[in-house]
UniProtKB/TrEMBL annotation:
Residues 125-303 form the D-isomer specific 2-hydroxyacid dehydrogenase NAD-binding domain. Residues 20-334 form the D-isomer specific 2-hydroxyacid dehydrogenase catalytic domain. InterPro entries: D-isomer_2-hydroxyacid_DH, D-isomer_2_OHA_DH_cat_dom, D-isomer_DH_CS, D-isomer_DH_CS1, D-isomer_DH_NAD-bd. This is D-glycerate dehydrogenase. It comes from Allobacillus halotolerans. The keyword Transmembrane does not apply. Keywords: Oxidoreductase.
Amino acid sequence: MQRFFIHTYKEAILVAKPIVYVTRRLPNEIISELTEKYQVKMWEEEEMPVPRDVLKKEIAEADAVLSMLTDTFDEELLNMASRLKVIANLAVGFDNIDVKACEARGITVTNTPDVLTDTTADLTFGLLLATARRIPESVDVIRKDEWKTWSPYMMAGSDVHHKTIGIVGMGSIGEAVAKRATGFDMNILYHNRNRKPEAEEKLGARYVSIDELLAQSDFVVSMTPLTEETKGMFDARAFDRMRKSAFFINASRGGVMNEADLYQAIKEEKIQGAGLDVFENEPIKSDHPLVQLDRVVALPHIGSATVETRNRMAMLCVENLKRVLDGMEPLTPVKV
């Protein structure tokens, strides 16, 4: 372990720098915020997650971890973390972390809400538009030299304006998606654990049951976190209740949908199509069944992926780590 000396008038005191482990390579300007006070160790890969065996080794010595949603912190791993004080997760979701087990061990868990709200809402609505108007398919027509002439129904998609959007999960991102829907004069329905009177008044959104939302929406948009209650909630039963002309959009977590049921619903034309930024098991390959369907737009989990937003998320993680290690309350603690 790296050590440094603080020289006082009478003596030099040996002080151990706390160790911060970063599970993915981040820009130097962000890491430099930590290196003055802490010993920083970092997995140097940007594209690939830290292997489990490496994480086991590093967490045994770490006082703090700056983690990604691809890192799983379960009982087995936490039992090795005798010095760990804080896990700062670079994501809004924290289903990769056993928060209750952390609380039992006195380990603080933080996430990065709010800073990515508008960015993720932009992507979600862009995914909705791309799916409805068949934009990726149309791009392929050009790339494959298949555009021979104009015809009235070539790549004809579905209107978005004046349609009904049903948002499942009316958190801050769900509200931001609803705000964008107002610009398209959409009728806004939502379902949430709790009603949001302010959102209803400000956005004209209407609270309905999940069954009513599925039955009435032209676009069913999942913005709900992954919990025991929401796991697999979009299944064959849910798709059967949707309109045949409806689209399913998921920019929350892949685990809230049953991919096999979604595939069958689109294949059998029970619904029109889907726009997906997340999947049950990521990453997926080009031979994934859903990717084979023309009416599916698939993205590689890029909801908050802008340089500006990812930098803000990383800096929030850094600030949370520093505050906990300095004995202060973090800015965005996770509570369960």
